[in-house]
Each structure stands twice: as C-alpha cells, then as structure tokens.
UniProtKB/TrEMBL annotation:
The keyword Protease does not apply. Keywords: Membrane, Signal, Transmembrane, Transmembrane helix, Transport. GO terms for cellular component: endoplasmic reticulum membrane; Golgi membrane. This is Adenosine 3'-phospho 5'-phosphosulfate transporter 1. Residues 1-17 form the signal peptide. Its main location: membrane. It comes from the Eukaryota. It is found in: Membrane. GO terms for molecular function: 3'-phosphoadenosine 5'-phosphosulfate transmembrane transporter activity. The chain crosses the membrane at residues 33-57, 108-128, 153-172, 236-255, 261-280, 301-324, 336-356, 363-386, 392-410. Coiled coil: none annotated. It is a multi-pass membrane protein. Pfam families: UAA.
C-alpha cells in the first residue's frame, strides 16, 4: 500500500534519468506524464459518451426512422449527407488554380507575398513559443518570476482563434457542400491537440533547434503511417531521403557542445515527447488525407477539426480547473497575454497562408518555403536564445536540409514524368 505513492513521487526522476531542477518540477503533479494522463482523462469524458451516442443512433437506424427538430443535426454529425468523391492525387490539397493571363511580375509579387507571410507567421510563432515555454514572467531583482506551465491552455488559445477565422471564411465565401460525418473530424482533432501539447511540453526538456529538426524528420513516421493507414507504396528515393534525414538528425542529437546549460540539454523526457508529437502528427495528416475523399475545401477541414479541438480542450481545462488558473496568470502578466494572443494570431494566419500558397503555386513551392523557414528558425533561435551548435551538429543540420531539398526535387521530377506516362500504365502512389 506504500509502494504506489513512492512510485508516483519518483516518476519524474525515473523517466528523465537525471535530477530535475526545482524550477522545472515543483512536484510530481507537474510531471508531464501525469499531466498527459489527466488531459487524456478529460478528453475521454467527452469521447466515450460521444462514441456511445453514435453507436446508439446507428443501431436504431436513425437515418431511416428519425424525425424532429434534431434530425438534421444528428444526421450531419453521425451520418453525413453525401457519398465520397474520387480521391485527388494530392489528397489534402485542392486543385491548384493555374494562372491565366497573369504577368511574370504579378506572379513574382504573389510568390514574395506568400513567402513573406509564411516566414513572418511561423518564425514569429516559433520565437514566441520558445519564449512562453522556457522563460519566466514577472521577474524582478528580488523575485525570480514564474513560468507558465499549462501547455493545454496555449493549444486552446490557438484552436479557438483558428476556429473563428475558419468559420468566418466559410461563412463569407462559397464552399463545397459538406458531406462528411462531423464525428470523423474528432479523430484528427484529438491527435492534433495531443501533438500540439507534446510540442509545447517538449520545450521544457529540449532546445528549439532540436525540436525543429525532429519536425523535419517526421517524413519517416508519415511514410510508416501511410503504409498502415492508407496502404501506400513509395519510391526508392523516398526511402533514401528518409535515411539521410535520420542520419542528419542523429548527428545533431549525438553531438555535444562544451558548457551546455540546462535549456539546451536534450533529456529522455524531451525525446519521448518529441516521439509523441511525431506519431500523433503523422496520424493527423494521414487521417485528414483520408477525409479529403469527401468533397470539402481545406478551410472546411480546418473548421471541422478545430470545432472538436475547442470542445476537447475547453472541456478538459474546465474539469481540471486549469482554465481559470491560466486566465488568472494572464491577468497577472500582461506580457504573457500579448504573447499568447500573438501566438494564436500567427498560427491562424499561417494556416491561411498555407492554403493560399498551395492553391497558387502548388505543394512543391510551399515545401521549399517551409523548409527554408525551418532553417531560419534554427538560426533565429540560436541568435536570440544563445543555443550552441557544434561542427558535427551543424553538418547534421546541413544533411537534413539537403535531403529535404532532394526530396522536393525528386518529387517534382516524378510528377512531370507521370504526366507523360501513356494511358493504361499505373504509377506508384506517393506521399
């Protein structure tokens, strides 16, 4: 009977394999694994009743027998209204609008606008993310200040603004008739908020450059999830670039720099959280790809996923009493309020720039811009927050980005070649 409390108290030390600084871990209740299970329990309190309701309506054959004022809502949430459409080649991407009678100068201006918007949104988002999760607020000469600890509140802030922006966009512009059962968005939503939570929480244990490189290497689990979820097959160059990315990330993680302080040390907890982020995010992208077999626009997808994200996060925060606590922290520190709001604005604007860039120039150009953004994010973080990178680590970073550009080049060549394939010949399905 005395073992369980002892194990709970010792969990933080056991998981990281090292002594946890008091500034990071005030008690075992602040340990990330405990917080993860508490958050998951909050989500389960919404998911389980929802699952039982869906099964109930399906067993009752509600689509045939249901009537009344609630019928349209239940039909939309549980059954949907349209059959699936033919799956497009790029899945999650709407057909790109080809420029018609547009001058070169106009196209260059659009490209610069998209690149500047993406870089500004996500570079600012990255800097603010590291600031909020690794620095204190309200510090004075006599008071060290306090850190904001609840990553779930930041996820909620991001999702509520994205939900609002997507809802307004759908209301003001013409969208395809929606046909997917609404509950199917909940799977992508749940994995999305868990991946975002892991991303924020990981910054307590790893440096921001390490996190950026880990994101770059997520093509490997995405390929694995593609095989499991969508039964996809891949070309040899995709496996080659995945191996190069793995090698580059390993070189960076295994390199050591002299006099590394706690904020730049990669701990076991940080590695586990990064793995959680990559796994959840890989599932999200593959599930969304499957959902695009229904007729919908990317903004409708953004709206549907964020509806459930807001529901899950606000429900969990209210159950824990963390929503009021976070709002009180925001009231005590106006700087944090500004950072949290700007973080959400950058996230929502970034998503809109993503849709516009892909629509105007295609996925290849978008990937190049975002790859450059990752490189700039590492450089900016090192300059602002003083992270050190060794020669071996820098070489690893170079290998990763070389593999990413090689991947973009090979994919564009394959697409051009596939257009020349005679009718009747099949091509290998790509990510």
């Amino acid at each position: 009977r005395f073992c369980l409390p002892l194990v709970l108290v010792s969990l933080p030390t056991m998981a990281t394999g090292e002594e946890i600084p008091p500034a990071l871990q005030d008690s075992w209740g602040d340990f990330w694994l405990f917080r993860f299970f508490v958050n998951a329990a909050g989500y389960a309190s919404i998911v389980v009743p929802g699952f039982l309701l869906i099964q109930y309506f399906k067993r009752r054959n509600y689509l045939e027998t249901g009537r009344g004022i609630c019928f349209p809502v239940i039909k939309s949430c549980v059954f949907g209204s349209e059959v699936k459409s033919v799956h497009q080649e790029d899945g999650s991407l709407s057909p790109r609008a080809e420029p018609t009678e547009s001058s070169t100068a106009r196209q260059v201006f659009k490209l610069l606008f998209c690149a500047a918007g993406l870089q500004a949104s996500y570079l600012t988002w990255g800097v603010l993310q590291e600031r909020v999760m690794t620095r204190t607020y309200g510090a004075t000469e006599t008071d060290p200040g306090e850190k904001f600890k609840d990553s779930q509140f930041l996820v909620f802030m991001n999702r509520i603004l994205a939900f609002t922006v997507a809802g307004l966009y759908c209301a003001l512009t013409k969208q395809p008739r929606h046909g997917a059962p609404m509950y199917k968005y909940s799977f992508a939503s749940l994995s999305n908020i868990l991946s975002s939570w892991c991303q924020y929480e990981a910054l307590k244990y790893i440096s921001f450059p390490t996190q950026v490189l880990a994101k770059a290497s997520k093509v490997i689990p995405v390929m694995m999830m593609g095989k499991l979820v969508s039964r996809k097959s891949y070309e040899y160059w995709e496996y080659l670039t995945a191996a190069l990315i793995s090698m580059g990330v390993s070189m960076f993680l295994l390199s050591s720099a002299p006099n590394r302080h706690m904020s730049t040390v990669t701990t076991f907890s940080g590695i586990v959280l990064l793995a959680g982020y990559i796994i959840f995010d890989s599932f999200t992208s593959n599930w969304q790809d499957a959902l695009f077999t229904y007729k919908m626009s990317p903004v409708q997808m953004m709206f549907g996923v964020n509806v459930f994200s807001c529901l899950f996060t606000v429900g969990s925060l209210l159950e824990q009493g963390a929503l009021l606590e976070s709002l009180r922290f925001m009231a005590r520190h106006s700087e944090f309020m500004a950072h949290a709001v700007l973080l959400s604005v950058c996230s929502a604007c970034g998503q809109l720039f993503i849709f516009y860039t892909i629509n105007q120039f295609g996925a290849a150009v978008f990937t190049i811009i975002m790859t450059l953004r990752q490189a700039f994010a590492i450089l900016l973080s090192c300059l602002i927050y003083g992270h050190t990178v060794t020669v071996v680590g820098g070489l690893g970073v170079a290998v990763v980005f070389m593999a990413l550009f090689l991947r973009v080049y090979a994919r564009s060549r394959m697409k051009k070649r596939s257009k020349k394939v005679p009718p009747g010949e099949s091509t290998v399905q790509k990510v």
